[in-house]
Amino acid sequence: EPEVTQTPSHQVTQMGQEVILRCVPISNHLYFYWYRQILGQKVEFLVSFYNNEISEKSEIFDDQFSVERPDGSNFTLKIRSTKLEDSAMYFCASSGTGAFGEQFFGPGTRLTVL
Amino acid sequence: QKEVEQDPGPLSVPEGAIVSLNCTYSNSAFQYFMWYRQYSRKGPELLMYTYSSGNKEDGRFTAQVDKSSKYISLFIRDSQPSDSATYLCAMSSPSSNTGKLIFGQGTTLQVKP
Questions:
Q1: Is the pLDDT at A98 greater than 90, yes or no?
Q2: Which residues on B lie below 8 Å from A99 (Cβ)?
Q3: Per residue in A8-48, pLDDT tens?
């Protein structure tokens, strides 16, 4: 069964460093999302991406964040200068049946900023 | 008022019980409703997807949406220890144009053998 994959599963970084989180959405899906979940809190929307551009971003998604689809299979989230409060689980999701279709989530990357 | 509210629990039931999980919401524009299951430190797994009001059944799971009350439910029949997880409700509105999901806090369920 097709699934969303994410790498790495766990990333530890120093405050101020850049990190890139990688996702491989389900093949032939066209709508891509990043969400994050701080420990013990809700899953929060960060950004949606369609047709090679951001279609919506949340207040959390400031200038330190960027997304890219560098090729036909990968979808990345970059945090330029990490802060302690960026420590969270980051989930990638994709949808193939339209913007309001079922969203399938990856296993997540746990980011720890020291 | 929070957009989506969900009792965090924990909810503990004996094996075989019928479980009822609920969410309320404030935004009447929500049209798409989902239930996800999340095991500890794992990604959300889609269980049920419904559009607008009504019921949907899939095996032991039944999802109900009551838009007039802004209330959605997930019922689990014949609950099993493997159902022990956190259950997240999520919803989206056509007004966002992107399908971004707004999640509830999640309800932690424990099914005891």
A1: no
A2: 97-99
A3: 999 999 999 999 999 999 998 999 999 999 998 999 999 99
The answer to whether A105 contacts chain B (CB < 8 Å) is yes
Q: What is the pLDDT of residues B18-56, one digit of tens each?
A: 999 999 999 999 999 999 999 988 899 999 999 888 899
For A62-79, the pLDDT digits (tens) are 999 999 998 878 999 999
Using alpha carbons, list the distances in angstroms from residue B52 to A104, B27, B47, B76: 20, 13, 17, 20
Q: Does A57 touch chain B if contact means CB atoms closer than 8 Å?
A: no
Is it true that the peptide bond before B44 is cis, omega within 30 degrees of 0? no
Q: What gap in Å lies between CA A24 and CA A93, rounded to an integer?
A: 9
How would you label B27-43 residue by residue, b for 16+ Cβ within 10 Å and e otherwise?
eeebbbbbbbbbeeebb
Q: How far is A17 from chain B (nearest CA, A)?
A: 24
Q: What are φ and ψ of residue A92, in 5° steps? A: -100, 145
- pLDDT in the model for residue A71: 86
Instruction: Dig out the tokens for A75 from the structure.
Output: 């979808």
- Partners of residue A19 on adjacent β-strands: A79
